[in-house]
Write a structure and sequence with these properties.
There is one protein chain. The protein has 28 helices and 24 strands. An eight-stranded mixed barrel has the order 17-18-19-20-21-22-23-24, surrounded by four helices. A six-stranded antiparallel beta sheet has the order 8-7-6-11-10-9. Strands 2-3-1-4-5 form a five-stranded mixed beta sheet, with helices on both faces. Helix 11 (290-296) runs antiparallel to helix 12 (298-307), helix 15 packs across helix 16 and helix 21 runs parallel beside helix 23. The longest helix is centred in the middle third of the chain and has 32 residues, at 340-371. The radius of gyration is 43 Å and the shape is elongated.
């Protein structure tokens, strides 16, 4: 019966039960009345109240009502019921009373206690307290009848000039025409009104928002709240990151706490969320005595009892409408009737502190996102570089940076799902956290790639330790229940003279990691001088690439495709070359991989695309035969939102029909991000471009994949023809040609260098080829004689 049913209602002014709530409770008790000795219902009636209200201010009247309610709360505890029955009347239902005489004695004590309130001692106010008591044993079960009986008792007392009258319920039933006192309706209470201490609020604002460290400002505000409100404890409870608890985030208390218990620093979310419904429209909860809190949430009340709290006020912390916590001040000395000025001042103070808390949390989250990997909760690359650079150099020890990844991680995502892939990354991160030693650190820098900072004395010691690490990672597959072997590739950059920056060491470790070719078992390799030279060359190329593009150092070479039955050129492929002034030609194998890493490939591709459109425009204007031209498209373009619109606009600018342009994507692009690439492939076809898959046969794709990919052309990779083919290889190629014909996909064989290769292609029905046997990539002028005979 005494569950926290919020629907019963609390009177906003007095914090007593409303009449509806009291009706429900009292009728529950009266139904069981005959099983006990009896109960008593008191009515406390303020005679002359209406006349007083006409002369006095609203706040003065409200203050008197709160004082009466406060005293009633102190005199009567659960399970007794105290309620506000009207503008000028209160009722108390007290359990356990043996007779009318005892009820009368108790009513005398109650009335005497109330009359000692200073307001009622002053006869000038013209308000008398009269108390009527009804001793009941279940004969009257309706709340309204009991209240009329108590009102009748009050009237009897007034008629005789007395302050107290007690009757038995049976005597009221014997008087069917018995009168009662008039109870006024409760006037609306403006919970938002009240004067605020602006001077204190200004001081608090400066403290919170002028402090360099916002968190320190909040700590200082807790102390200031206690001093201003003469409270003993102030704290902030906040929702934990895992949302399981509300935890003490800030706390100040004037004296030693009565009890120190870590369990009190957190409350399960369920209980706080239920309690939050008791905060009013302003986000405020005011409690004059713990008895009020017990009505609404016994769990929170018991917690405050342990602290020794007598009275409290709390202000909610809301973030985008969600309850995220509260600011609380507690008086541990005595129960307390908070004044309206105190309430409105605390309300404003709570809003200011809440704003500062949200500001701190926003900064913390921003830093978390900036420096943390959101999946594994480990550091990200930026944080790793910052913190690793601060690590001390140890006497007799050198530093090393190790990067490693799982070479078959994509297969995990594809075969077991992304949830399992994420679980693998989290397990690896947890493993690294346990594997590193003091002053060492680690981070997830991208996808399935991690980086670690190690200290070491000898190279052999470092190599052995990396081996143990890879072995631990391999074992994770069994722990996760995967019938699948992890293969790890690790690059090691061992510091020699202490001159390398952390960023540089990561780049060197990455370079050697990516150079490892043995994918059949986990491997590690050290960065060496040869790699240093290659890295220096890459740095030189990267430093010059933008200026080279602006100054026209990049040239477009063309390699024809040939109809091997007639020897005629039927189309061209555009290829980029780099000719620095006064230097040897730089071949694409030297700069294309680097540009794909740093993203410059997208600018180069667009440059080549525009040069091709300019050439085609020239052919059209001069009346020459127009050949379709294949242009390479990096997978980086696919991730750009408007890349197709950009290509279309270039074609329109030069008046080139899009069906003259073939866009080439490598097979690996389709495998790396199949959903995105497939969506883009459909859009490419819808725009009217010809689509081809380059380097077919280099990946791990199934031939059945072709049925889902809307390509017009596949290009067999030149690796098929770089050596003498076995009968098995010939069978595979002939099967590919046969299947693609049935799918109406054109096949181009790349890398044809011998007549033997050409003869084989004729035998299996492949009509289009490209390679040194016919023509090398060269400027267009070299091919003009044969293109336009």
């Amino acid at each position: 019966m005494w569950d926290d049913r919020v629907c019963r209602g609390i009177d906003p002014l007095t914090k007593l039960w409303t009449e509806d709530a009291a009706k429900e409770l009292i009728e529950d008790y009266s139904r069981d009345g005959k099983e006990y000795e009896g109960d008593v219902l008191y009515m406390i009636y303020l005679e002359g109240w209406e006349n007083f209200k006409e002369k006095a201010s609203l706040e003065t009247g409200n203050s008197v009502l709160r004082q009466v309610a406060f005293l009633l709360e102190k005199l009567y505890r659960r399970p007794d019921v105290t309620a506000r029955a009207g503008e000028n009347a209160f009722i108390v239902y007290e359990l356990g009373c043996r007779s009318v005489k005892e009820a009368s004695e108790r009513a005398e004590e109650l009335c005497a206690g109330l009359r000692r309130i200073r307001f009622f001692e002053d006869e000038k106010n013209g308000v008398n307290i009269r108390t009527g008591a009804v001793w009941c044993r279940g004969e009257i079960r309706e709340y309204s009848t009991l209240v009329r009986a108590a009102g009748y008792a009050v009237k009897c007392a007034a008629d005789k000039g007395e302050y107290v009258k007690a009757i038995a319920e049976s005597s009221f039933l014997e008087e069917p025409d018995a009168g009662s006192v008039e109870i006024g309706g409760i006037a609306p209470y403006d919970v938002f009104g009240g004067e605020t201490d602006i001077e204190f609020i200004t001081e608090l604002t400066d403290m919170l928002f002028l402090c360099e460290d916002a968190a320190v400002g909040i700590e200082m505000s807790m102390e200031r709240l206690c001093l201003y409100f003469q409270a003993d404890r102030a704290c902030v409870m906040e929702l934990s990151t895992d949302r399981k608890y509300f935890e003490t985030a800030y706390e100040y208390h004037t004296n030693n706490l009565r009890v120190k218990n870590d369990n009190l620093f957190r409350i399960p979310t369920f209980f706080v969320k239920a309690f939050s419904r008791n905060f009013d429209e302003r986000g405020l909860y005011v409690c004059n005595s713990l008895a009020e809190l017990e009505k609404e949430n016994r769990v929170i009340a018991e917690r405050e009892k342990v602290y020794g709290t007598k009275a409290l006020m709390q202000s909610s912390v809301l973030e985008q409408g969600e309850f995220r916590g509260y600011i609380s001040i507690c008086d541990m000395k005595e129960e307390r009737l908070w004044t309206k000025r105190e309430i409105t001042t605390f309300l404003m103070a709570g809003k200011l502190i809440a704003a500062s808390i949200l500001r701190v949390r926003s900064l913390e989250y921003s830093q978390h996102v900036t420096y943390r990997d959101l999946l594994t909760e480990s550091w990200n690359k930026n944080k790793f570089i910052m913190e690793a650079a601060k690590k001390p150099r140890k006497q007799g020890m050198k530093r090393a940076v190790v990067t490693f990844d799982l070479k078959n991680f994509k297969v995990i995502n594809q075969e077991f799902g992304y949830d399992m892939g994420n679980a693998v990354l989290i397990e690896i991160s947890n493993l690294l956290g346990m594997f590193i030693e003091k002053d060492e650190c680690y981070a997830r820098i991208e996808a399935d790639t991690f980086v670690l900072l190690f200290y070491y004395r000898e190279t052999s010691e470092l190599e052995a330790r990396v081996g143990r690490l890879l072995n631990h990672v391999e074992r994770l597959s069994a722990r996760l229940g995967l019938v699948f072997s992890f293969i790890c590739m690790a690059g090691i950059c061992a510091e020699e003279d202490g001159s390398m920056e952390i960023q540089e060491m990561i780049e060197c470790a990455d370079m050697v990691r990516k150079s490892i070719k043995d994918y059949h078992k986990s491997s590690s390799s050290f960065f060496n001088r040869e790699m240093q030279q290659r890295r220096d060359r890459e740095k030189y190329i990267a430093s010059r690439m933008k200026k080279a593009l602006e100054s026209g150092e990049f040239l477009v070479y063309y390699q024809p495709r040939v109809d091997i039955r007639t020897g005629e050129y039927i189309s061209l492929e555009a290829l980029a070359r780099w000719q620095p002034p006064g230097e040897a030609l730089i071949m694409p194998g030297e700069f294309i991989p680097l540009f794909e890493q740093n993203g410059f490939i997208s600018e180069l591709d667009m440059y080549v695309f525009e040069q091709v459109c300019r050439e085609i425009q020239g052919w059209m204007r001069s009346g020459r035969k127009v050949y379709p031209v294949a242009v390479n498209l990096s997978r980086i373009h696919i991730r750009e939102k408007h890349f197709l619109e950009h290509l279309e606009s270039v074609c329109r600018r030069y008046g080139v029909p899009v069906d003259y342009i073939e866009l080439e994507l490598t097979e690996s692009a389709f495998l790396d991000d199949p959903e995105v690439i497939m969506e883009s492939a459909v859009k490419i076809k819808e725009k009217g471009f010809v689509l081809s898959m380059d380097d077919f046969g280099t990946g791990f794709s199934s031939l059945s994949m072709l049925k889902d990919i809307p390509v017009d052309i596949i290009k067999l990779d030149q690796s098929f023809f770089q050596k003498k083919m076995t009968e098995r290889e010939k069978i595979i190629i002939s099967y590919v040609i046969q299947m693609t014909r049935e799918l109406q996909i054109e096949v181009v064989s790349e890398g044809i260098e011998t007549e033997e290769h050409e003869q084989f292609l004729k035998e299996i029905g492949c009509d289009i080829a490209q390679g040194y046997l016919y023509a090398r990539p060269a400027p267009l002028a070299v091919h003009e004689a044969k293109l336009w005979k």
